[in-house]
Design a protein that fits this description.
It is a multi-pass membrane protein. InterPro entries: MFS_2, MFS_dom, MFS_trans_sf, Na/Gal_symport. It comes from Paenibacillus plantarum. This is MFS transporter. About 80% of the residues lie in helices and about 0% in strands. It is mainly alpha-helical and about 475 residues long. It has 2 domains: about 210 residues, Growth Hormone, Chain: A, CATH 1.20.1250.20; about 240 residues, Up-down Bundle (Growth Hormone, Chain: A), CATH 1.20.1250. The strands form 2 sheets. Strands 1-4 form a two-stranded antiparallel ribbon. A two-stranded antiparallel ribbon has the order 2-3. Strand 2 and strand 3 form a beta hairpin. Helix 2 runs parallel beside helix 6. It is globular.
Length: about 475
């Protein structure tokens, strides 16, 4: 048993609740949580803008302002709700999952309300209605997503099993994306136009599916790690803030995730122009989407055994290095066809897929490290800080794709782009990802401190502190 600091000794040790062992039921239950989240999250991300512009007739610039304001508000709501949950006492069903049950119903109702269209109202009414319902939905989304994300570290303390939870969470989002992106356009549009009644029907359909998934998550998942009432009462915001500032794993994973997210936003925007203008094949985008899904599905069964053997940090870093090398090769291979480009870039997709599969397990390790520093179990607070940074990054980086495309000389008025603009688009789609992937690789290797051995030692130290036997 490791030596514990005085801060640790001041708190009653956490214990593992007497319950069934961690297993496939928990993994599937946790999968359903993100499945439920993403039915509306992806629906909103993919189709809400066209709903607002084509049905509410709100200008795209105003919609962009709405999204900016909402993201900043959501970031604040995340931290506020995370802190609130950490100060609540756990029930017999756990500390986090009861909130998923309580708040999922109002969340889904607010999601459906976003797509209610009352004919004949003024432009001012539609604008006001959009602001109110969208911000309400975003706030209620925090009340479900923060406890859902925080719950992973209470389901199991085993670092490898947490990787399984992270992988299954990614699978849940992947399945929701397939349904929304395949079924969504067939349901929401009539004769290639957004239809108000069909959007409403789609929102109700996805809402029912979302509620069903939340109920499955609540029923199938079990929180095993428990904290004492004394520890819950003794949470101290000054100690928390000081520890967050000293939490090197948290600070580094925040920076890494922010870079990765901003790159995703950039490539998501650039790829449209890369295939539409540079390759002259917009239809190839559907192949890109399909390939990404297939690659992730191939990587999923490999993630757990690789992490068990080498560690999360090590696997994620290797994946980033592979992605950087592939994009560097692509940057110096101009003249490829669209299919050749997709074929080579698939190797890079395979590399960064592993980061996507383990990123949520990084967060649970960071939460453990916070407990190691403070002796306090504040999963909601730490997870919400991580979510805060991501949403703030979304708000700041919202226009990065459009700015980058304009910077290389793209002109929508021209029937055909200049060669300089096309070359610039190609560099944005290859050289920029190479640089960012390599920067993430460097940060994982030299900045993020929790390698395989330190993660196992951390788990053992906390197990001893809680009176567990591993």
């Amino acid at each position: 048993m490791s030596t514990m600091t005085n801060v640790h000794k001041q708190h009653i040790e956490a214990a593992v609740s007497e319950s069934r062992k961690f297993g496939m039921r928990d993994k599937i239950g946790y999968l359903f949580g993100d499945f439920g989240n993403d039915f509306f999250f992806i629906l909103v991300s993919s189709f809400l803008m066209v709903y607002y512009t084509d049905i509410f007739h709100i200008s795209a610039a105003t919609v962009g302002l709405l999204f900016l304001v909402a993201r900043i508000w959501d970031a604040v709501a995340d931290v506020t709700w995370g802190r609130f949950i950490d100060t609540r006492k756990a029930s017999k069903h756990g500390k986090f999952k009861p909130w998923i049950l309580r708040m999922s119903f109002p969340l889904v109702v607010s999601g459906v309300l976003m797509f209610v269209h009352i004919p004949g109202m003024s432009n001012g009414f539609y604008l006001t209605y959009a602001f109110i319902t969208y911000i309400l939905w975003g706030t209620l989304y925090s009340t479900v997503n923060i406890p859902y994300g925080s719950m992973a570290s209470f389901i199991t303390s085993d670092p490898v099993e947490r990787t399984s939870l992270s992988t299954f969470r990614t699978m849940g989002g992947l399945f929701a994306s397939l349904i929304i992106n395949v079924v969504g356009p067939l349901v929401l549009f009539v004769n290639n136009k957004a239809d108000a009644n069909h959007f409403m029907m789609g929102a109700i359909l996805f809402g029912i599916l979302s509620i069903s998934c939340y109920l499955a998550c609540y029923t199938m998942s079990t929180e095993r790690i428990t904290t004492s009432a004394a520890q819950e009462k003794n949470t101290n915001i000054k100690v928390t803030l000081k520890a967050l500032g000293k939490n090197k794993p948290l600070l580094s994973i925040l920076a890494i995730s922010l870079m990765f997210m901003m790159l995703n936003m950039l490539t998501g925007a650039v790829n449209v122009y890369l295939f539409k203008d540079y390759f002259g094949s917009a239809s190839s985008l559907s192949i890109v989407g399909l390939v990404q899904v297939v690659v992730i599905l191939i990587a999923i069964p490999m993630a757990k055994p690789l992490v068990a053997k080498f560690g999360k940090k090590e696997i994620a870093a290797a994946g980033m290095l592979l992605a950087a090398i592939v994009n560097l090769v692509l940057a110096f291979l101009p003249g490829l066809t669209a299919m050749q480009f997709i074929g080579i870039s698939t190797l890079g997709t395979f590399g960064f897929a592993f980061f996507n599969l383990v990123v949520w397990a990084f967060v649970t390790d960071v939460i453990d490290y916070h407990e190691f520093l403070t002796g306090m179990r504040e999963d909601g607070t730490v997870y919400s800080v991580y979510s805060f940074a991501r949403k703030l990054g979304q708000a700041i980086a919202g226009g990065i794709g459009g700015f980058a495309i304009a910077a290389v000389g793209y002109d929508s008025v021209l029937p055909k782009q200049t060669q300089a603009a096309l070359d610039g688009i190609y560099r944005l789609g290859t050289l920029v990802p190479c640089i960012v992937f390599f920067a993430i690789f460097i940060m994982l290797v030299f900045v993020y401190p929790l390698n395989k051995q330190r993660t196992l030692t951390l788990a053992t130290d906390l197990a001893a502190k809680r009176g567990e036997y591993m």
